Amino acid sequence: MKLMKKLTTSLFVLALCVSMAVAPTAAFAASSSSSASSAASKSSKSSSASVSSSAASSSAASSSSSESSSASSTTPAAAGTYVFDEAGLFSESELAELNAQGANLAQRYNMGVYFLTTDYMNGLANPSSSERTDYATAYYRKHSLGLNPTDGKSYGDGIMFVLAKASRDYVTIAYGQGSYSFSDAGIEAIENAVLDNISDHRDNWYGAASTYYREVGSQLDYYDRHGKAQQPIGLFGYLIRFAIVLGIPALITFLVINSWRSAMKTAREQSEASQYLDAESLQLTRSDDEFVNTSLIVTPKPKDSDSGGGGWGGGGGGGFSSSGGGKF
C-alpha cells in the first residue's frame, strides 16, 4: 500500500510537471501565430499601399505625358537655322552658306529672315492666294520662327519666302516688325529678283535664295538708316526719271531759243482792225455793250474712293502680312 501511494504521488507530480512544461510552449505557439498573422496583415497593407502608389504614379505619368504631347504641338526650329530645305534643293555647303547669311542679318537687324522650300503647299497643285498664306503662316507658328516674341507667343519678328518646287508656287509672309520694315513695292522688288533665277524653268535654286538674302538685307539696311520702309522704283519710275532728266533741259532750251527768235522779229501781227486805220480817219462818237447770253457748265466733283485696303506695310496691327504669292 505504501508502495502504491508513493507510485501514485510520483505519477501526479510527473503529470503536473508535464502540464507546466506544455503550457508555455502553447502560449509561445499562440503568440507566434498571432505575430505571424499581424506580420501578414502588415505585409498585405504594405503591398496594397505599394500598388496604390504605383497606380497613382502611373496616372501622374500618363497625365504628364498628355500635357507634354499637347505642348509639343509646336516644333521649334534649331537655333541658327534660317533655311528649311524640305524639297532637298541645296547641297550641304550651300545650306551652310545660306544659313550664315540669315544669321548675319539676324544679328545686324534683330529679325529672323527665313527661306523655305517644299514640293507642295499642303499637298495642293494649284493653291489660292489665301491657301498659300495659310500654309506659310502655319509653318511659321509651328516652328516658332522670328525673334523677340511678345504677348505669350512662341514666334516673333521675321520674314519668310516660301518656294514650292513641284507646284511652282511662291509666297512671302512677315510677322511683327517684318510687316513694317518692307513696303508693297519693296516686297514686289524682292520677289521679282528671286523669280528671275527660277522662272521659265531656269531653276537656279541657290541663286534665288542668295538673291533673296541680298535684297532683304538691302531693304533692312535702308529701314535701319531712315526709319521707314524703302520704296524701290520700277521700270515705269525709271522712265519718268529719264524723261524728267532729258525733258526739263530740252524745255528750257526751247524757251530760250523761241525768245531769241521773237526778239529778232520787228513786225507784229495785230489783233484789232483799228490798229491798221489812220488815227484821224475815224471818229467814234458812241460805244455800247449789249448782253446777249450766258452758259453754265456743271462738272460733278468725283467722290473719294473708300475701297482701298491696307497694304503690306500695315500688317494688320503688327500681325502677319502676305504678298499672296503666285506661280513661277
Brief descriptors of the model:
53% helix, six-stranded mixed β-sheet, alpha/beta, 8 helices, Diaminopimelate Epimerase, Chain A, domain 1, 6 strands, 328 residues
Give a structural overview.
Strands 1, 2, 3, 4, 5 and 6 form a 6-stranded mixed β-sheet that branches. The chain has a domain at 83-233 and 315-327: Roll (Diaminopimelate Epimerase, Chain A, domain 1). The radius of gyration is 49 Å and the shape is elongated. The longest helix has 70 residues, at 2-71. Helix content is 53%, strand content 9%. The protein is α/β, with parallel strands linked by helices and 328 residues long.
What is the topology?
Blueprint lengths: L1 H70 L11 E3 L6 H18 L2 E7 L10 H14 L15 E7 L4 E7 L1 H4 L3 H12 L9 H22 L8 H30 L50 H4 L1 E3 L3 E2 L1
Parallel strand pairs: 1-2, 2-3
Antiparallel strand pairs: 3-4, 4-5, 4-6
Helix pairs in contact: 2-6, 5-6
CATH architecture of the domain at 83-233 and 315-327: Roll
The biggest sheet amounts to: 6 strands, mixed
Secondary structure class reads alpha/beta
Helix content: 40-55%
Q: What is the approximate shape?
A: elongated
The tally of strands reads 6
The poorly predicted ranges are 21-72, 303-311, 313-318
Q: Please report the number of helical segments.
A: 8
State the name of the first-level CATH class of the domain at 83-233 and 315-327: Alpha Beta
